[in-house]
Amino acid sequence: MTDNRYCILLILILLSLASCSVDRDPCLLPKNTSLRIGTYQNNDTSAIISDTFLPKPIWFAVDSPIGIQFPDRTAKFSLLLASITDSCRYAIQPDSAIVSFDTLTFYYDRKLQFLSNACGYTYYFNLKRVRTTFNNIDSVKLTNTEVNSNANSQEHVQIFF
């Protein structure tokens, strides 16, 4: 009789432990912060700025063998900034058929940001400046220096070709 009680007690303990496991990620906030970039046509005769759809753009993280090829004819990009340094370099080839490319160096301050107990921490960035080469790029403009996880915020950098 006592063996049955121990078996039932053991089964109840195991069931209660199994019911406490979490099967989903409890974090409901975005953890990644992306630098949003738009490409535009530099039109000196008009005050209207229009998107420039790049035919087959390729971004390369300099000092990394990883290249990011975006879909055909796109004008909006999201790139990650390095959380261990205060600058990050990317090279852009506006069309895979064009041999020349430009290098953009983003300089920023990093800030460790607490999200919640479930999400932990992430980095937010404050853009200070952008340096670029001018093989294909005409100019670069910072439009929003605060890079955070706010998905509704505007783009941070405009690149004019």
Describe this structure in words.
- A hairpin with a 3-residue loop joins strand 6 and strand 7.
- The strands form two sheets. The chain has a six-stranded antiparallel β-sheet with strand order 3-2-5-6-7-9, with no helix packed on it.
- The chain has one domain.
- By secondary structure, the protein is mostly beta strands.
- Helix content is 11%, strand content 40%.
Number of domains: 1
Query: How many β-strand stretches?
Result: 10
The tally of helices reads 1
Output mean pLDDT: 83
Radius of gyration: 24 Å
Strand % is 35-45%
Shape: elongated
- Structural class assignment: mainly beta
Secondary-structure element string:
HEEEEEEEEEE
Give the strand line-up of the largest sheet: 3-2-5-6-7-9
Characterize the biggest β-sheet: 6 strands, antiparallel
Helix content: 10-25%
Question: How would you describe this structure in keywords?
Answer:
single chain, mainly beta, 10 strands, six-stranded antiparallel beta sheet, 11% helix, four-stranded mixed beta sheet, 161 residues
Blueprint of the fold:
Layout: H1 2-19, E1 34-40, E2 58-61, E3 67-69, E4 76-80, E5 87-93, E6 102-116, E7 120-132, E8 139-142, E9 146-147, E10 157-160
Parallel strand pairs: 1-10
Antiparallel strand pairs: 1-4, 2-3, 2-5, 5-6, 6-7, 7-9, 8-10
